[in-house]
Amino acid sequence: MEYIDLNGCRCELSFEPGTFPIESRHVLVICKFNDKWVLTKHSIRGLEFPGGKVEPGESLRQAAKREVYEETGAVIRNPEWFAEYVVFSEKPFCKTVFLAEVERLEKIEKMETEGIVLMEKLHPDGSFSFLMKDAGMKEIIKKVKQLGKWGN
């Protein structure tokens, strides 16, 4: 699927592994805890799924676990590859989307964000990051919901 994100960049989304020649060095993690979506509140962008850049020597799965923990205090298990998308910005990059189960929530002293936000339903409005509102994210959320185990 091809679309233009809210920054005006052309993007391509795929639910098939190995579609893009650009190595993924970014992660986005979609997870639920007690039937609620796990989001983080970024101080500038607003509500969004946790994610970030892969650090040197780290695998995509390790980065997924670390980013979710650093941004929400949630400990996840079994991050499962779900999709990838490429953003053709000035410096194109590829981001891998994972689905994961939250094992538990921990209180951590210093978070990279304003912390965890648990939501029963996703209705990306003004409080949500622009990252949650483009056509690609809408398609990702739609496919996640189609899995059945993710509810609303």
From TrEMBL:
SUPFAM superfamilies: Nudix. PROSITE patterns: NUDIX, NUDIX_BOX. InterPro entries: Nudix_hydrolase, NUDIX_hydrolase-like_dom_sf, NUDIX_hydrolase_CS, NUDIX_hydrolase_dom, Nudix_YtkD. Keywords: Hydrolase. CDD domains: NUDIX_RppH. One of its GO terms (molecular function) is hydrolase activity. Coiled coil: none annotated. Gene3D superfamilies: Nucleoside Triphosphate Pyrophosphohydrolase (3.90.79.10). Pfam families: NUDIX. The keyword Zinc does not apply. NCBIfam families: nudix_YtkD. Belongs to the Nudix hydrolase family. PANTHER family: ADP-RIBOSE PYROPHOSPHATASE, DIHYDRONEOPTERIN TRIPHOSPHATE DIPHOSPHATASE. This is Nucleoside triphosphatase YtkD.
